[in-house]
Specification:
This protein is mostly beta strands. The protein is built from 2 helices and 12 strands. GO terms for molecular function: nickel cation binding; unfolded protein binding.
């Protein structure tokens, strides 16, 4: 079958808003393979289909993909090798999160732990900062900002009055660090993601 004759999955059914019993097949993918716009996949039962979305979108564990012919494919997040970052002290934990966020790393954050991909430079930095690190196998669902895409489950919109008004000359979708020890100036009185600039 060519891509033009495959069933086209064009609609995402968010986890919890559809009945998984109605899925004809399923795909189990790591994070990179769940962040796509257009790609051919073959499900666990052999159903081949073309993911064909208007823009690159993160698929989450439990989402469904509806094809134009009504077929539904369930999405499962595959466990992958990650590093779990923890601290017994909440203020220290917040500082660790700040250091990781300052490096624009893909990170999954909850109240007790941060999950990141293994990177020897970053793990050495975290050890130096006193973090507790542990190798784990788990599905990876990093915050959307690391890839320049707002998380579709908690999305917000910048209207014309909320535009950023500045250029970014760096790519947010990479795995290396760069210094952000400078202030961004957005104009007097500009509010950006819950904190004030200017």
């Amino acid at each position: 079958m060519t891509d033009s004759t495959l069933p086209r999955a064009t609609t995402i059914l968010p986890a919890g808003q559809w009945d998984p019993a109605g899925a004809r097949d399923s795909i189990t993918l790591d994070f990179d393979d769940r962040h796509r716009r257009r790609r051919r996949y073959t499900g666990g039962k052999g159903l081949s289909f073309l993911l064909d979305l208007p823009e690159a979108t993160v698929l989450y564990d439990g989402d469904g993909l509806r094809c134009e012919d009504g077929t539904i494919i369930a999405v499962h997040a595959a466990p992958e090798p990650l590093v779990e970052v923890t601290s017994a002290d909440p203020a220290h934990f917040a500082r660790l999160a700040w250091h990781l966020g300052n490096r624009h790393l893909p990170a999954e954050i909850d109240a007790k732990r941060i999950l990141i991909r293994d990177d020897h430079v970053i793990t050495a930095m975290l050890r130096g900062l006193g973090a507790t690190l542990r190798q784990v196998q788990a599905p990876f669902n990093p915050e959307g900002g690391a890839y320049g895409e707002h998380n579709r489950h908690t999305a917000h919109h910048h209207g014309p009055q909320e535009g950023h008004g500045h250029a970014h000359d760096h790519d947010h979708g990479h795995g290396h660090s760069h210094d952000h020890g400078h202030d961004h100036h957005h104009g007097d009185g500009h509010t950006h993601h819950g904190h004030r600039h200017g």
